[in-house]
Structures are given as C-alpha cells and as structure tokens.
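Long-time lurker. I teach an intro course on protein structure, and each term I like to show students one example going from raw sequence to a predicted 3D structure in token notation. This year I'd like something fresh instead of my usual example. Would anyone be willing to generate the tokens for the chain below so I can use it in lecture? Attribution to the forum is fine with me.
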Amino acid sequence: MGGCLDVVPLTDTLPVAETGVCRPDLAASYVTGGISRDGSWVALMTATGGQNRRSVLLRSTDLHSGRWRPVPMNGPSLLFWVTGTTFIATDDNSQPPRYYRCDVTQTCVALAFPADLHQPVLVRKAGA
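-- Reply from a regular --
Happy to contribute to a lecture. Here you go:
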C-alpha cells in the first residue's frame, strides 16, 4: 500500500478522471509539503519513524500528469515558499539555526542578520 499525491486547482469540483501519482514511498509515516506561491512547484518531505528523512522538489504539472520526477533537495530544509521558484530554508543541524533564500535550482544564499540578534525567528508574511 502506498500514498497518492496530486495538484489540482481550487474549484467547486475535483477532476473526474484519474490524475496524480500513487507510489509506495508516499506511505511514509510522516509526509508534509508545501506548494509554491504560483502553484508550479511542490516541496515534499518524508520520513519513516522519524528516520530516513528525504526532501524533494517536484513540478506540479508532472504530478498532475502522473509523472514522478523528483529532484532531491540536498541543501537546507524548506521552511516556506516566497515566490513561485524561491523559498526560505534552514540548516537543521546548526545552533543557532542558519537561514537561507534558495531557488528551485538549489542555489542558496545565506540570510544576514545583525550580530547582536542571536536567535532570529522568521515569520511568513500573511497571505504568502
């Protein structure tokens, strides 16, 4: 048994035909994700029993068409999307946490904070 994933427009009805992707690895005990602001990309994070964490980026059109073409995320972990192709991410292993602005090509730039700000907290803009 697995799990299924699809990206559909927010309307009053759902697609009648079968759409999306169903895969055994989508049955992980922990699956979460986020969709980019323009709906073109999905970031998906999975883990089994808190172990074997895996993060990937997927094009929404691929998912809706039944194609599974994940791009492994090898850098920092996504926190939230900023635009259709950029997101804020963090390095889970650093103390205090480090934050980055990344894009879907996985090019990341560290965010700079004032030196006396020891534990910055990033807050996603309402409506974003």
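Some talking points for your students: The chain has a mean pLDDT of 82. The CA atoms of residues 55 and 74 lie 8 Å apart.
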